[in-house]
């Protein structure tokens, strides 16, 4: 049973410094605000956008995505289950790449794609950072991990 507890505690294990704080705030706030905007401006950023991209049942997918962006963004901001919260957002980024950025590189070439993909690339790399290194010392993950060690 000890290995099971150890595996669960690895979710909360994180770096002992504050280097992830700015990464968490950047990623968390961007996803949180983008998720909220899908609800506030559905024709522009929610259902309308998903319909334009070509998703079947765009309302479902827009609100499904928005909900994950809001919840996971908030979890990342406070540093709670950061590694787990990063996974759905990485999936969202991969889906965004395939549905919106891949056609650009195929039809317009590398340089237009590089310009359009720069923000998505940065967000994906920051999510991978959080997945690998965790939420840092200034996080609830760190506090939980330390409390469990006592």
What does this structure look like?
This protein has one domain. By secondary structure, the protein is an all-alpha fold. The chain contains eight helices and no strands. Helix content is 81%, strand content 0%. The chain is globular and about 55 Å long. It has helices at 2-10, 20-40, 42-45, 47-53, 58-78, 82-107, 110-133, 140-149. The longest helix has 26 residues, at 82-107.
Low-confidence stretches: none
Please state roughly what percent of the residues sit in beta strands, choosing from under 5%, 5-15%, 15-25%, 25-35%, 35-45% or over 45%: under 5%
Q: If helices are DSSP runs of H or I spanning 4 or more residues, what is the number of helices?
A: 8
What is the C-alpha radius of gyration, as a whole number of Å?
17 Å
Please tell me the total number of domains: 1
Overall geometry: globular
Structural class, from secondary structure content? mainly alpha
Helical content band: over 70%
Short note summarizing the structure:
With 150 residues, the protein is an all-alpha fold. 81% of the residues lie in helices and 0% in strands. The protein has helices spanning 2-10, 20-40, 42-45, 47-53, 58-78, 82-107, 110-133, 140-149.
């Amino acid at each position: 049973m000890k290995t099971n507890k150890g595996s669960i505690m690895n979710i909360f294990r994180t770096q002992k410094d504050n280097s992830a704080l700015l990464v968490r705030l950047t990623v968390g706030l961007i996803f949180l605000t983008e998720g909220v905007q899908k609800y506030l401006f559905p024709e522009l950023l929610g259902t309308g956008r998903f319909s334009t991209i070509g998703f079947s049942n765009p309302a479902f997918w827009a609100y499904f995505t928005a909900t994950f962006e809001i919840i996971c963004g908030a979890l990342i901001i406070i540093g709670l289950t950061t590694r787990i919260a990063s996974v759905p957002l990485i999936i969202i980024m991969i889906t965004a790449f395939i549905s919106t950025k891949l056609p650009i590189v195929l039809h317009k070439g590398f340089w237009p794609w590089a310009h359009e993909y720069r923000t998505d690339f940065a967000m994906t790399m920051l999510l991978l950072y959080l997945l690998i290194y965790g939420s840092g010392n200034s996080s609830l993950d760190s506090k939980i991990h330390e409390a469990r060690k006592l």
